[in-house]
Design a protein that fits this description.
single chain; 5-stranded mixed sheet; 13 strands
């Protein structure tokens, strides 16, 4: 069995999606003063994040029967921890790594007969480890609660940070509805100006990715300098790292598909060699059958010998047709993988363009908010320099319901599927 290379890495090494990190970054920073976050929310990630990911109820798995059907079978681990796949039965998956479940499915698959593709002979095929491809198609969601714009379940994405999860929940809400009073307006304006700067930085990072660099070393120095102007040296370094992760994910996805194409090419080469051999054997068998029939007409051989030669010729011809069908199926698989590469590239760029539209729309809305806050300050005689102490705390609750543990979390900390994230905001007006 072949497991998708990204699923066997640790959670700490899960790759960012270019379509997700740029969208979640700007929303996560809504109404937040970053300097307050990083001064309060730095913690060290747990060593458990270096362990292989353990499957739990709510995780969705995809099992492909390669060469036996056009679409994979999608199944979700149920509340009881079990998951079922056609022809193979039900497995208890909760608490297992993908590798653990792979071995159980591999053992169950050996020798199992399943219907072959229409038109293939024989009508049934025997499964083995090479027929199966298992991967996690969707992780169980995380839950955002507290002072966020849209609390509730949020779809987990590999590589998602606490900041990205809060962004997917609409961002932190410092003020809940209504017009901000004059005392609160300076803090809101500072947060809005900070967010505008970071939104512009996100747009610029998308522009870098749209130029399709193959590594961070390909990013021009002037682009790195521009990021430093937006985010400072430390922020620019973090942005470059995120860009590198997005590039790596895209590259690994393409490499995985190319590796599968290479394997299919090798299979096609072996099948063609076998086809050539059986073609020669078929021709030889037909020629031998013709000679034996001629000898029978002259009374020089028995009917049993003729029947044996006829069966051998028929077997060679049948095998030839089977190999030809396998070659056709492998070529179809190769075309599908090539189309998948093209689709991956197109989706990569389309998602970036879509994220840019969202960023520009957010910027437009933010400009109106900034103007409104500035008007509040002018009308009240206030100034941006007024001091309003804003503190934001984020807690992660992780584990099973009967053994859940909570702790303070950093904004750049990686989240895990099933995490509960609670956001609290405290305003201390001087």
């Amino acid at each position: 069995m072949k497991i998708h290379v990204q699923q066997e890495t640790t959670l700490n090494g899960l790759r960012y999606s270019a379509a997700r990190w740029s969208g979640t970054l700007f929303a996560a920073l809504r109404h937040i003063v970053w300097c307050a976050f990083f001064s309060v929310l730095f913690v060290t990630q747990s060593s458990a994040e270096n362990m292989p990911y353990r499957l739990q109820p709510g995780d969705e798995l995809s099992l492909s029967y390669l060469g036996l059907g056009p679409a994979p079978h999608i199944a979700t681990i149920g509340p009881s921890g079990e998951i079922g796949f056609p022809y193979l039965g039900t497995f208890f998956a909760a608490g297992l790594s993908l590798g653990d479940l792979e071995r159980e499915i591999e053992q169950a698959a050996v020798g199992v007969e399943v219907p072959n593709l229409p038109g293939r002979d024989p009508p049934f095929a025997v499964l083995n480890a090479e027929n199966l491809f298992l991967e996690i198609s969707r992780f169980r969601p995380i839950t955002i609660i507290g002072q966020v714009a849209q609390p509730g379940a949020v779809e987990f994405a590999p590589g998602m940070s606490v900041r990205g999860a809060i962004g997917a929940g609409g961002g932190v809400e410092i003020f809940q509805g209504g017009t901000a009073p004059a005392l609160e307006a300076p803090a809101q304006l500072r947060a809005a100006l900070e967010l505008r700067r970071l939104l512009r930085a996100s747009l610029f990072k998308n522009e870098i990715l749209l130029r399709a660099p193959t590594s961070v070393e390909d990013i021009p120095e002037e682009d790195v300098a521009a990021l430093s102007e937006f985010l400072g040296d430390e922020g620019a370094s973090a942005a470059i790292e995120e860009i590198g992760l997005a590039i790596s994910e895209r590259t690994l996805a393409i490499q995985a598909l190319n590796t599968r194409i290479e394997l299919v090419d090798q299979r096609i080469e072996r099948l063609r060699a076998a086809f050539d051999n059986y073609s020669s054997a078929s021709v030889t068998g037909e020629e031998r059958l013709a000679r034996i029939l001629e000898m029978m007409d002259r009374g020089l051989t028995t009917e049993e010998t003729v029947n044996n030669v006829r069966l051998a010729a028929l077997a060679a011809s049948t095998r030839l047709l089977t190999i030809e069908s396998d070659i056709f199926g492998s070529q179809s698989e190769r075309e599908r993988l090539l189309a998948e590469i093209e689709r991956t590239e197109n989706e990569y760029r389309t998602d970036l363009f879509s994220q840019n539209q969202d960023l520009n729309r957010e910027l437009s809305q933010l400009e109106g908010r900034i103007e409104g806050l500035q008007a509040v300050l002018l009308g009240s005689g206030g100034a941006v320099s007024q001091q309003v102490d804003t503190s934001v705390e984020v807690f992660i609750y992780r584990g099973s319901p009967d053994a859940e543990e909570g702790r303070l979390a950093a904004m750049n900390e990686a989240v895990q599927p099933g995490d509960i994230i609670e956001v609290t905001v405290t305003m201390n007006d001087d």
